Amino acid sequence: METSVIHEGYNSKDMLGSLTTPLFQTSTFTFQTAEQGERRFAGEEDGYIYSRLGNPTVTILEERIAALENGERGLAFGSGMAAVSAILLALTKANDHVLCSSGLYGCTFGLLTMMKEKYNINHDFSNMETEEEIRSQIKPETVCIYVETPINPTMKLIDLEMVAQVAKEYEIPVVVDNTFASPYLQNPLELGCDVVLHSATKYIGGHGDVIAGLAVGKKELIDEVATTTLKDIGGIMAPFDAWLLLRGLKTLPVRMDRHCDNAEEIYKRLKTHPNVRSVYYPNDDTHPDYEIMKKQMKRGGGVISFEIIGTKEDAQAFLNNLTFLKIAVSLGDAETLIEHPATMTHAVVPEDSRASMGITDQLIRLSVGLEAWQDIWHDLEQALDKINSDAYSKVLKSR
Ligand code: LCS
Asked: Which domain holds residue 79?
């Protein structure tokens, strides 16, 4: 992995010796003759035509991610949601059914709702805790199982090997959103799943400067997506974004280990703070899915969720009291980012669904960055301590 993130898919000899991958910032490619143009469009001759159909910088990234996820073909998109929607729309048609993990990123939830309302493509949520539970929720119309693990923002895990085994019995493809783990910590295709997706905006980019998505799977399916729901809907990745991602990817293993080291330190401290009611981080034997984490993830990742003791307003005051940690959605950046899922990333999810996903008004999501963990903790601790004094002053006022 450490070597592949740097070298896979690129040979400097092909590019005048350029050490780093060249940026082909071009919308179109010239043909030497009209006949060559005809052959390229007919698929009789390899070569680039137009950057919506393919671009050399983007191809290098696609080959690299395919190697990192151990899949046959990778495909790049203009955002994580472009990847999610292109894959889901390629796998479904009207009256089909998708079985989803009971917890999804807010916009994926929004997309599924829209697919249901506009195209009658239905879905159900499942905890996917046992084989029987999954079997009981698969319908004759089920064409896809869609799983996020770790789940945004609750950090619940789904046993991918178990889901893949059940899905094989029914010949239903399993799509996994691997954004939170990154290819460094978890490889769903190796566990028997069929498609892996990433919001590359997060750990793969790693520097908070690009919105992008990636998908990897069997050549036949990814070829179909490339020529239909990517090409014709058009959510392609720009060459410069691919260039930034190739740069970010080189340090993925180093960054992920540091994110995990820092998260482990912060987790230990959050667990013992008196104003914290609960903490969710999979790499701990008190986490209900710890056995799954040991089975399918290298480490626990860089995101921790926790509930403060208090109200929604206390949660917001806690965020406002942070001094250098940034209040922002997104995750996986060098900077520690902190947000309030109920009013931000998952605000589109109706309140009752949020409650069943475990997204309370007290829940805070922390993407632990690469700063010194002592500094991160220092800022969190002083703001957590203030919740205490706020709560204390309220008690005094109420007397
Ligand atoms: N899948 C997951 C698990 C995500 O967390 C996100 C974005 C997406 C897909 C969509 O990717 P995008 O189109 O944004 O590249 N998650 C975000 C979040 O938690 N905060 O801001 C965006």
From this structure: 4-249
